[in-house]
Every structure is written in structure tokens, then in C-alpha cells.
Amino acid sequence: MFKNSHKNFFPVPSFLSGPSFGLDISEESIKFTELISHKDGIMLGRYGERDVPAGVIESGKIKNLKKLEEILTSLKKEEKIKSVLVSLPEEQIYLFRIKLEKDGLENIRQSIEFSLEEHIPIPAQDVVFDYEILNEDAKSLNVQVAVIPSNIIEDYVLVFENSGIDVFLFELEAQAIVRAIIRREDPDTYMVVDFGKKRTGISIVSNGILMFTSTVDMGGVILTNVIEKSFKINFEEAEKMKQKYGLSRDSENREIFSVLLNGVSVLRDEILKHFLFWHTNKEEGGKEHPPIKKIILCGGDSNLIGLTEYLSVSMKTKVEVANVWVNISDVEKEIPQMSKEQSLSYATAIGLALGNFEK
């Protein structure tokens, strides 16, 4: 969406002269994935993770540019990375749709710019935006707009320039995830829940288009902290207990179920709120939203035992764990050297790298 500069916007190139690297940046880590084109399609190359110290990035804002530059410079040297596609923090992005009447419309970008302040709480001169035409008829255009504060994107551009890594594209994390886990040209509507360490992204995609995204300050670390406090053990022991028992009612330690259930129910309520809002509110013009076919889970903590079953029963809808290889053509011939559990943490990086293979 945001191509290699905070001032220029171009589509992702449909050709590729070498490997495609996706770089997923968060407060805790930088994950990278390399995808390689070969005669049978696309195959997984290198992948890995680098820790990001606390305080370097907070709520999507880079607080320590020099430290992040050091991490990226080291990654470039160790992995010989030259260019990447990079995720942008959803906490700092505004996503909305507007309808533009064709009568008198001369410049789409200018028309959007004039209406920005009706949709975001930031002056138009202090932001960067890009847009996508969703559909149109004889009289109007339906346009989706993504907006990010200029100072945020400028910091990301600067750290990559200083580390010597070229950026093909800056893209919303949720859009990258959708590219990885939703089959190409799938017309249905899905809710995607990215359950991470410190936060959870909730998105809705319809006909391959990201329609909505929101971030909740609730992640797997909170569940671990609850176990730590309830059982008076250290964090590492609590994390092991969470992974071993999860939400299994039949586990040998039933106390963990009730402890975790309180935390997970908070997440369930947030998911349900967005689920109901989508189904009870109509599109502009009075048309009903298409129904959500199922909820798809990804992110490192979506591996929690019993989570899909709990959400499915409590929300009375189908819930399943994502398949991040659904759009990688060689997976049936050769299983990627990455476990399914591990792959759920790499959904964003894989989706970013896939962007260079879009027609």
C-alpha cells in the first residue's frame, strides 16, 4: 500500500528478480520470511526472528531509532537481505471507506484529502494516505482509505534508509495476514483474529478486501501473568503450564482451566462485539453486510489448547486455526521446514513476502 517512500504510492511489482523477503516488526520481535520462485511455484526459503528490546517500539511508534537501526543492520549483514516488504503498526493506522460521486470528480486523491478530517482526528497536513477503489457504478466510486501519521511513516522510512535495506512496500499487518491465510479469489467473508503476545488484531475480510481492522490490548502474556499470579510461580513456569494444559477441561490440573477462562472470555467478548456489529449494521445505502462464514485464528498464542473449541461453542459459529500455506503452490509436494504451530507466528511475514508474487 505505502510504496518505498512516505510521498510515493505505486502497486507492488508483479515480477521478481530474486527472493522476496517479508519483515514483520512488532514491539517484541522482528520476524522475516523468504519466499523463492521456482518451476513448481513458490517455496519457503530462510526464516527467523530477532528480539526487539523493551522500549524500542511502543504502540507502533519507534522510540529508539538508533537501536532499531542496529538490529536491522545486523539482520541485513547476517541474512544478506537487500530489499523487503514491511508491515506497519495497526495501532497507528486509520482505515475507512467513503463514497465519491463521479459527477464533478476530477482527482480522486484530492477529493479524499478534502474529506480526511471528517474521518480521522488528525489534521490532513499531518498524515499520509493511500486508497483502493473497492467498486463503482455509473454514478459513484466506493473507496477504501488507509491513513497513517506522517511522523510515524517517516521514522520507519528513516531507519530502513540508515540500515541500508530497500523497502518495496509498507503494508497494513492485517492485509498481509489476509494474503497469507485466505485463498486467492475467495469471495466469502471471514473474521481474522491475530492472537499475539501483547495484543490481538481483529479484522474482517470480504471478497479478498480488508473491510475493517481493530486492535485490542489483550494477548497471551496476560494469560501467562494470570497463571503466574494465581499459582505463585515464575513467568517461565507459568508459560509452560499455559502451553501444556490450555483450556482443556480434561487436563490433570483443572484449576488452570478456570483461571484461563476468565482471561479468554475477555477476548471472546471483544471478538463477539465486532462480530455482532458487522451483522447488525448495514453498509452505506442500506445494504446488509455479507455474513461472516467463519472465524480464522492466527498468531503465536492461537495455539492455546482448546481455544478454537471454546470460541466456536460460545459464539455459535465456526472457528478454525489458519493455514498460512494456502497460497503457496508447492506445499502439497514439499512440506515447509516450519511446524504448523510456528507458522502461525509467521503469518504476517509470509503474507508480506507473497505480495511480490501477486499478478
Brief descriptors of the model:
359 residues; alpha/beta; Nucleotidyltransferase, domain 5; 5-stranded mixed sheet; 10 helices; 28% strand; globular; disordered N terminus
What is the topology?
Layout: E1 20-25, E2 29-38, E3 41-51, E4 57-58, E5 61-62, H1 65-79, E6 83-88, E7 94-101, H2 108-115, E8 127-136, E9 140-149, H3 150-163, E10 166-172, H4 173-181, E11 189-195, E12 200-206, E13 209-216, H5 220-231, H6 235-245, H7 254-280, E14 294-298, H8 307-315, E15 319-321, H9 340-343, H10 347-354
Parallel strand pairs: 1-6, 6-10, 11-14, 14-15
Antiparallel strand pairs: 1-2, 2-3, 4-5, 7-9, 8-9, 11-12, 12-13
Helix pairs in contact: 1-3, 4-10, 5-6, 5-7
Molecular structure report:
With 359 residues, the chain is of the alpha/beta class. The chain folds into two domains: 1-92 and 151-182 and 326-359, ATPase, nucleotide binding domain (Nucleotidyltransferase, domain 5), CATH 3.30.420; 184-323, ATPase, nucleotide binding domain (Nucleotidyltransferase, domain 5, 2-Layer Sandwich), CATH 3.30.420. 33% of the residues lie in helices and 28% in strands. The protein is built from ten helices and 15 strands. Strands 3-2-1-6-10 form a five-stranded mixed beta sheet. Helix 5 crosses helix 6. The radius of gyration is 21 Å and the shape is globular. It starts with 19 loop residues before the first strand and ends in a 5-residue tail after the last helix. The relative contact order is 0.16.
